[in-house]
């Protein structure tokens, strides 16, 4: 039994985790943030890093310290809640949104620029591309034990090399000057960037991928709890540093691009990157970019399909891992053909509603030693959080809630910034503490 990983092993697992996180949304959202934030790009990307890097790192650390995944963390509130929340989480980062997005983004940036106008408007190229893409995903996901070797040692270095080429060229030959911020990033760029980080879905994925890291470390002979946690944290830091550097670089590419690309739509990060690559490298730029997107999306797709296969085959024992992977791959192919804009528009309300719950679950897990089995603290805090998160989700889905938003904005701190759930979550935890003190010693949760 070993006590620690070698530097080479830590880097391999860290790069694997980086590749699992870094997929479609991670490529397309930072450049748009940079372009719209303009001179406020560094504040905006700072907020983005909090939810796009900081929270995923905390999620991995939470899994490493507790030794349990998404279901185990959510079970601390209640087993039924744990099951419902975890199913929603896996469906969100799985076949409903994140997995299909990997195929669609790969197509729109990697293949569509090379098609004629008539071909690009047809549904046939997208269908054929996504069918091939998810067939490859299915085949790679059939043997998850080789995930570290396939992703950490092979695909990730290729991905980083391609991204580095684009970024270094953008720095060496700037596309233009960084302009004034758009109205959406003028008043509160930090908080706007914070909310944009939700779209990566990485905080949700972290409590799924955390188990992949734990398993990879155990496979290398480390089983003692403290040594296991330490190794996982180090690998998580490798992934976090990589993500932060790439996000900052891509945000700069976007911020310096308006003169060359014009202002793209808020959900058109793929178009912005395509135009930037073409400006920087000419016709070869789209090939370089297409390769980067393909590797980024494929690695994430394999990781998510594999994770869904592991979870749902255990939840429904009648379904084998192979069967679940096949179902997820086929369903993702279908959803991917709805188009990128439709997938993003459908995902945002769900993310706005469940992200705060995931954040609270992760943060409370760090206090678990002091909570000491007082389930009511989790329950009350999550109820308070969920109330405001669901309202925000309904508003993001364009539901008319009358004067309720204005009423809440008048007395809930930070509500106008999109994080009105924060203070209620803290108050809920405090009320939970008081209730637990009044109702006697806590019941220890089953391990």
TrEMBL record:
One GO CC annotation, please? plasma membrane
Q: What is this protein called?
A: Branched-chain amino acid transport system carrier protein
Q: Name one GO biological process term.
A: L-leucine transport
GO molecular-function annotation terms? L-isoleucine transmembrane transporter activity; L-leucine transmembrane transporter activity; L-valine transmembrane transporter activity
Family, similarity comment = Belongs to the branched chain amino acid transporter family.
Q: Topology in the membrane? A: Multi-pass membrane protein
Q: Give the gene symbol.
A: brnQ
InterPro entries noted in UniProt:
Brnchd-chn_aa_trnsp_Livcs
- Keywords on record: Amino-acid transport, Cell membrane, Membrane, Transmembrane, Transmembrane helix, Transport
Chain ranges passing through the membrane: 12-29, 41-69, 81-103, 123-142, 154-178, 198-217, 237-255, 275-298, 319-340, 346-367, 376-397, 417-438
Keyword Thylakoid in the entry? The reply is no
Q: What does this protein do?
A: Component of the transport system for branched-chain amino acids.
Say where the protein is mainly found.
membrane
Report any Pfam family annotated for this entry: Branch_AA_trans
Q: Give the originating organism.
A: Bacillus aerius
Query: Where in the cell?
Result: Cell membrane
Q: Which PANTHER family match?
A: BRANCHED-CHAIN AMINO ACID PERMEASE BRAB, BRANCHED-CHAIN AMINO ACID TRANSPORT SYSTEM 2 CARRIER PROTEIN
